[in-house]
Amino acid sequence: MTRFASVLLLFFIAGTQAAMAQAELVIPVTDAEAQQVLQFDEADELSHADLSWKSSGRIRVAKINLAALRLNGEYVQFTPFPDVEPIVMISHGIGGEYGRTWTGERYTGRIEGIPTAAEIEQEFARGITPMATHLGTDQSIEVSDGMLASIKQTLNEEFGRVNKVTLSVGNILMDARTREFLLDPDLQENESFLINPKTGNKKYIKGLEASYKWLVEKAGDEYPCEKRNTRTLEIALEERGNMGGFGGAAGSNQADPKTGRPEFVDDKTGHVTNSLKGYVVESSHGATVALPCKPEGDVIDRMIAFREAHGEESDFKDYERVKKLPPSADYFESVGGMIADKGSHPFQASDPAQAEKNLKHNQSVRNYRISPLLRHPEYVLIYELDKDRYHEMRTFDVHSYDPENLPEFEPTGLDRKHERLRKENEAHVEAAKARRDARNKSRGDK
Question: What gap in Å lies between CA 264 and CA 251, rounded to an integer?
Fold first, then answer.
């Protein structure tokens, strides 16, 4: 072997070792392990069947390396499938609001030539906006300071997204034995919620009382008032705006000229008060309602009784209040989002040739999606949707098309293709459900 060839070989080996040293985000699992977690719950198994059809089988079960996501300033790689060249990124760790977002910067598949924040500032200092190049003009634009700051922020955000990659990171409390979702009794706000242990969905208890009142009155019944109560209006309600429309509250609204807080004037005495006599003020997530009373009994029990009395199914019986955690309770981290193999252009260039080039580039981008399983959120489905099978937009709902009521509309060829794909997808999922039912029956499972 010549010395030149030896040097090349050493460079190749060094490069390969460097690539191998990068932390890999995807942790493979065996087929047996994947099958076990998918078959644990029908929702996960049928979701896999649905996405398997939409991706034409381009799907796998895996885990995500949380330790790699926590790296800061180091290279990591994402290999969605064994036959895909790793997508290399610089990890900026997990942070953002509530510490639930991983951010990375694309190293391979980058779009070069995108201005940095400093370069954008320099362009504005010269009196030419960075947009000028993309708009095909070098004309200076005069704007107010406020608008200038807004434009800079927008440009930084738009250009910053070109090579940026983000994933959401969830922290889920579950019973490791039964795989049911739980509320943490150590978190005070969880006293205000109910949770469906099978789905993880939450309901706000105070908001349910208003919903119950609405349902009762909609049915033509009188809202029961076994228990009268009075509650002082919270200072937190001062930003609620006009507090009128409480229906039945004596007096009218006015605001304190010094504090701007809402006040209520008794029409009979003229006294100013911050209370609604005989009313309970409930506040939940930006919405405020005044209820004339609080009926006896748990609102969940009343909701269930109301639904059953009207012959309706109710899922409220599936919800639970916060309770003492079982010994097998644990937090599980889940990861979700999408990683593309190339960056995306933020703007279409005014030059038709460049615009066509940008469009072709974006069409050639391959998107790899990451979805956590419902009952085993530490596992994910990684898949690549088949563009010929999956369509996010339905231009026409052929299924509900009625030529008598909509004579001016008629499904197009694309509409009929979407309808055919929808039926094929439904048939595929139904077949998977039938196989699951037959398997469970042969095992003696419920």
Answer: 6
